Amino acid sequence: MSTEEKYVAAVYLVVFLVLLAYVFIIALKLQRLVRDVAELAQLAVKRRGPDRKAVAVG
Amino acid sequence: MGAALALIFFYAPLDEDGLNQKIFYIHVPIAITAYACFGWGGWKALRHLWKRDERADLESYVAIHLGVIFGVLTLVTGSIWARYRWGHWWVWSEDQLFLFLVLFLFYCAYFMLRYSLAPGPQRENLSAVYALFGVVLIPVSVLAIRLSERFIHPVAFDRGGPNMAGSQFLTFCVAVAAMLALAAMLYNLELAGKRLDQRLRELREALQ
Question: CA B198 to CA B61: how far, in whole Å?
């Protein structure tokens, strides 16, 4: 690989890695949000009380 | 993005610059995208102040956040290109480089301001005013190359139009469109995540 090719490859690699890191961080945040939704669903079920039974929908 | 990469590597002809000219097709669209993100952030900040649009504060924040990421990429890709072309990572005497760095640091400081204040109308208003001030720097940064007396930084466009062949210009336009589309997708993704986070926080408060 020539010096010129190395510089071109470095530029494209940097862009790819930075964007990959950004998407990875966003994916981690979305995973946290999914966990939060599950936690809040559980909390809502608890607050509904033991006397009220869940009703099947659909 | 795939089409842009295919055009860059298999369609656009090489000129006297050689292979390193391929950096132009990614470096310049990234810089344009950074300017577009900062501009969009400024527009949303204006909407927040003018129309009192509640969603505009978050939209302005996300746009500036993306602008800073594309700004980092502009500086890094530009530095690598400069190292090859000029033999230096950075040239302080170049107005366009220096003004882009000023613009970038200005928007980096936006986050320091935003997170130094408690969430609420005061933070939203001050952030919006700050974001609007930054918009003034965008045309100065873009036009710096025209004002500069030294022309180390290459000029791709002048009053006569683009200084490149038709196929190169087409590749460049596709690369710009691809980068803007990528930024728009990332903007919507991050914004959706932030809005969902906000709603979940409100729901948690309501449930507890």
Answer: 14
Q: What is the pLDDT of residues B151-161, one digit of tens each?
A: 556 666 666 66
Q: How many domains does chain B have?
A: 1
Chain B interface, mutation test: which of A2, A5, A7, most B Cβ atoms within 10 Å? A7
Domain-located, residue B11: no
Q: Between A and B, how many residue pairs show a Cβ–Cβ distance under 8 A?
A: 65
ipTM above 0.90, yes or no: no
Q: Is the pLDDT of residue A2 over 70?
A: yes
Q: By residue range, what is the domain housing residue B114?
A: 22-153+168-207
**Does the CA dihedral B198-A20-B91-B23 come out positive or negative?**
negative
Residue A46 buriedness (CB in 10 A; 0-12 / 13-18 / 19+): exposed
